[in-house]
Amino acid sequence: MIKKIKGLDINYIDYGNVHGEAIVFLHGWGQLIDMMKPLADPFSHDYRIIIMDLPGHGLSSEPLSVWTISDYVECIKELLDELNINNPVLVGHSFGGKISLMYASKYKVNKLVVLASPYKKKITKLSLKTRTLKKLKQVPGLNKLEGFAKKHIGSTDYKNASPIMRQILVEHVNLDITDIVSNIECPTLIIWGTMDTEVPVEDAYELEKLIKNAGVVIYEGCTHYAYLERIEQTINVLRAFLES
After folding, report:
1. φ, ψ dihedrals at 236, nearest 5°
2. Regarding beta strands 89-93 and 22-26, do their DSSP bridges make them parallel or antiparallel, or are they unpaired?
3. For 72-93, how does the pLDDT look when each residue is reduced to its tens digit (9 = 90+)?
4. Is residue 96 within 8 Å of residue 54, measured between CB atoms?
5. What is the DSSP-derived secondary structure letter of residue 6?
6. pTM of the shown model
7. H or E element at residue 149
8. Which has the closest alpha carbon to 23: 114, 75, 85, 69?
9. How far is CA 41 from the centre of its chain?
10. H or E element, residue 22
11. Does the domain spanning 2-121+175-243 belong to CATH 3.40.50.300?
12. Taking each helix axis from N to C terminus, what angle separates 69-82 and 95-106, rounded to the nearest 10 degrees?
């Protein structure tokens, strides 16, 4: 289904028990609806399920300007208002988790589930080649190398993104919401893998301390996609959390 939200075509699916509580699933950067369906489908008998392609992903339009995380939050809020959904359960992975944290800090959420969700500014150690190009772009006449450096040395996510989405990704990576997450009051479940190289597992324990009513579940030996690597365990943990 497509709805026009904030001037963009937003693709989403709405299925399951129309009389049940709504669970909204938000995927990670560079992903789409299909990444969340394996986790969402088992709950469709008892819950109303909403999964959307975040703007700039899947079949949803790209933003026409550089959106902040707050812009994504307002887009989701407008969609949920159109669907007459209040006080939802939010389940977000990575980028979608960061949006979920921001949403829950501002709007009423019944329960929150974050799956390997970054919330601090990502600090990366620059390679020699990257440092060299950053120096070169400061030399008069060689500043055109900046575009080359970003396109060829950035992360895979950065390389695969359009110019607008690259800028949005930079905004996302540089945004620290540590002070904001302390405003979250709803019960929060945090799931992380010990082998996550995108967002270190130490961040999970820090996030647990920042949120008043939070608990963490750690998957040994799992990566940034821990929730999928142990999908049956995630389903069972989520079911217990929702029923508690």
Report:
1. -65, -40
2. parallel
3. 999 999 999 999 999 999 999 9
4. yes
5. T
6. 0.86
7. helix 145-153
8. 85
9. 19
10. strand 22-26
11. no
12. 70
